[in-house]
Design brief:
Helices cover 16% and strands 38% of the residues. It contains 2 helices and 8 strands, in the order βαββββαβββ.
């Protein structure tokens, strides 16, 4: 029986820069930073919001995942649920995060879009109360 979503891969061009963005700027926890296998240059770097079950793997495309290299810097339809959108927007703007969509209230919730350190667009959603 499937229990939950374990990881979601986000393809990046620089794992250290991405790790810094997700941990220092967004405040995610670093869950793992280890070689993919003994002697590998690429690493398994995973982060997650504090207390979250699902992790985001900051994956550097290698020869086995070459077809994903073209997705770096594109919208990967990754959505993070947030609370207090206005406070979060102010905090992220103060840290220099680029917003590609300012908060937009909709019947299903308020959403905004940001760009991460790799150019990927991420969707922030505050569900209606």
């Amino acid at each position: 029986m499937i229990e939950r979503v374990g990881t979601v891969s986000l393809f990046v061009s620089d794992q250290d820069r991405a790790k810094d963005f997700y941990t220092r700027i967004l405040g995610f926890e670093l869950r793992q930073d280890a070689p993919l296998y003994p002697g590998a240059a690429n690493r398994w770097v995973s982060v997650a919001p504090k207390g979250a079950e699902t992790e985001v793997t900051l994956y550097l495309p290698d020869q086995d995942w070459e077809h994903y290299r073209q997705t770096v810097g594109k919208s990967q339809a990754l959505t993070f649920n947030v609370h207090d959108m206005s406070a979060l927007v102010a905090d992220l703007k103060a840290k220099g995060v680029v917003f590609t969509q300012e908060p937009d209230p909709q019947p299903w919730g308020t959403y905004a879009m940001i760009r991460d350190s790799e150019g990927n667009q991420l969707i922030l959603v505050e569900l209606p109360k």
